[in-house]
Each structure stands twice: as structure tokens, then as C-alpha cells.
Amino acid sequence: MAGSGRLLSRAGWVLLIGRLWTRRMSTTMDPTKPLVAVCQMTSTSDKEKNFSVCSGLIQEATSRNASMVFLPEAFDYIGGNTEETLHLAETLEGDIIQRYSSLARSCNIWLSLGGFHEKGPKWETDRRIFNSHVVLDSTGHIVSIYRKTHLFDVDLQSGVSLKESEFTIPGSRLVPPVNTPAGKVGLGVCYDLRFPELATALTQEGAELLTYPSAFTVTTGLAHWEVLLRARAIENQCYVVAAAQTGSHNPRRTSYGHAMVVDPWGLVIAQCQDGTGLCYAEINLPYLGSVRRDMPVQRHRRTDLYGQVTMKSSG
């Protein structure tokens, strides 16, 4: 760049192009294509404050005529320890989901509630929860619930240690993609991103968007976040929508951020910068169809050699 005194690195060019793309998208939305809004936030144990932040983001997205808003994993809260996490959990009939239901109805917008701390069926005896991805339609009704199937149990060399299975029940099934104003949405949560079989099964069932609301650690985010999201988009020729937690939640936990949307060709078409905020992307389903037509990956699968990935019934 003239007068800059230096050349931008490849990463610098990627960031610059991303910013220009986001700026262009914000001023030239095509009304014939559904618009999605993807949230980034820093949840704490203050549920009222978290709701206030999310409510503000949802209302902002509504003013921009978004058809659907995606909230990250743990949008309701992030506790400082296991005891607090369990103490703050609710049922699907509790106050938090009811408030979001009213918000969806009043804003006339679909909501992806990316990871809700739901009390398990034997709460009174075992005090265990589900990590539940809840989708509300624009009338406030629950249209789908996916309970996270892959639980994050790691001890990283950086010192980060998380044992989700200590208090979380793994989900027992995948759920079919949800018909939404933005397209057919396949549901995952955070760590599910590392398991391509889940994405393939959802795509085989008709998914056009895959969504991974997350609270990635900084260590894993720096190394793997974008590359995994782009890989799932390229492999499945789907849009990938990833709302994210960011920043310091408490002295023990910090999240990577970088909420983003990836298109079916693997390009990052929207991304949040630092802090709380939104990014927007148009979902161009005819374009998705052209990508799949020009490179018919699904038809080229050698299921005779390695089998068919399918969504199994829960029985």
C-alpha cells in the first residue's frame, strides 16, 4: 500500500478483505436473500446482565431485518466453578427460555440459543445437566432441541483443564436439520465441530447451514477455530455459522471469540472483531446449489469402501 512504509502480510490482507467485505455487506444487503446475525459476547455468572446483552444484540439484528439470530454456547451464563454452574441451571420451562420466547415473538425473529444449561431428567438425585441447543421460531415456540453429544474433557499443556462430563449428560441423538427462514440448519455445539461425521450426517439429511455455537479456549481457538469451520464448510458445501464467546468470563476461563460465517466454498464472509457485537451474512442458497452442482462431492463418495454416514434413530 502506497505510503504505508511496509507490505501487508498475508494475514493482514485477509483481515483487511474481511473488514471490507463486512462493511460492504452492511450497506448493500440484497432483500431477496435471507440475512443472518451472528453474536459474540462475554457471558459471566450474572444471568440478568447476560440477558440484557443478548436482548440488545437481538433487537439490533431485528432493526437490520435479520431473519435469524445465532447466540453462542453458554449465552445464559458461565459459572465460576461447578457448584455455581449447577446452581444457576434451569429447565426448558424456566424463566430464561420463557424470556427468550417472548423476545422472539415481540421481535418476530428466529433464535438459535446455542448452549443452554438445562437441568437433566434426574436432577433431584444426580444434579447433572444437558448442554442444549434450542431453536425458537418467530412465534416463540421451541421447534428443535439438540443436546450436545461430544463432551469437552481435556487437560491442555497450557494449563487449561475442562471436564464437561463431570456434570453434563451427553446427548443421545442427533436431530434433523431445522427448516428456518435462512435455510435448513443442522445443529451442533462447540466441540462437535471436531467430528466431521456429525456434519456429514446432517448434510445427508439436507442441511444447508451447519451451526456451531461455541466457547472455544484461546489455545484451541488460535490453532484450530477458523481452519475447522472452513473445513466443515468445504467438505459439506454448506454455510457454517459460528457464534462465539470471547474474552475473560472469570479468573479461570477465557474464550477465543472470532464469531464468523463461512460460505460453501470455504470463504470467511463475515467475522466479529474483538468484544461484544454482531456480524451479518446473506445466505445465498442458489449459490450453494451451484457449488454442489459444479463439484458434486456427495455423488462421488465411495460408500462401497468406507460405508455411509447416516443419522441413526434414537430408537
From TrEMBL:
Origin: domain of life: Eukaryota
EC number per UniProt: 3.5.1.128
Keywords, in A-Z order: Hydrolase, Signal
Entry-linked Gene3D superfamilies: Carbon-nitrogen hydrolase
Keyword Translocase in annotation: no
Residue ranges of domain CN hydrolase in the record: 34-285
Signal peptide: 1-22
InterPro entries reported for this sequence: C-N_Hydrolase (IPR003010), C-N_Hydrolase_sf (IPR036526), Nit1/2_C-N_Hydrolase (IPR045254), UPF0012_CS (IPR001110)
GO molecular function: deaminated glutathione amidase activity
Family: Belongs to the carbon-nitrogen hydrolase superfamily. NIT1/NIT2 family.
Classification via PANTHER family: DEAMINATED GLUTATHIONE AMIDASE, NITRILASE-RELATED
Name the UniProt record assigns to this protein: Deaminated glutathione amidase
